[in-house]
Design goal:
The protein is α/β, with parallel strands linked by helices. The chain has ten helices and nine strands. The strands form two sheets. It has a seven-stranded mixed beta sheet with strand order 3-2-1-4-7-5-8, with helices on both faces. Strands 6-9 form a two-stranded parallel sheet. The longest helix is centred in the middle third of the chain and has 17 residues, at 121-137. The chain is globular and about 45 Å long.
Length: 238
Amino acid sequence: MISLVIPAYNEERALPRLLATVTEATRAYAGSVETIVADNSSTDGTAGVAAAWGARVVPVAKRSIAAARNAGAAAARGEILAFVDADMQIHAGTFGAIDSAMASDRLVGGATGVTLERWSLGLAATFAVLLPVVWLTRFDTGVVFCRRRDFETVGGYDETLRLAEDVSFLMRLRQLGRSRGQRLTRLTKAKAIASTRKFDEHGDWHYFRIFPPALFKLALSGRSALRSIESYWYEPNR
């Protein structure tokens, strides 16, 4: 069984779009899939939407993406764990591609990667800046997956981190794999579709406007800059 964990905070609008693609991918897969929505203290109808689509709802009180992912994983029954953000859409071949990858003892886990739901010059520039980092590290986004036993070995997602917990997780997973001669993989033929709602809200060039100054301030002072970066992720306009 593959267990797909979806951390969600106030996602009643975006969730049906994702769950429709999960349903399609589940039908295309010969194996078994369970879908878990880790409801991270939503104040809207997220839990009801998830239940209506047949997903298991796991309430998570601690307001943290890492905590939501970990709680979903703790409730999961599958031998393979997969994680995707609630505002994405997944490829119809996602679960078959994950199954094939995890059948290889040369791989410790990986991610599907993403394409964007819309493009512009600003979005393309942002994508181009980030892509070399993905190539060099093999740390990608989209649907992230690994074996349950390896997730538990590396300690899951670090709940002391309010951001970049996904990068930290992949770093530890890669280290575990290297100790056994395994590597991370990217399933580029089953890319997820990433939402551009942050760009819709802040502008298509906002990465270049917001993050370089914030990272500079973070290097100098720390706390105030960290607060502004956290607000970007934890105080969404929804």
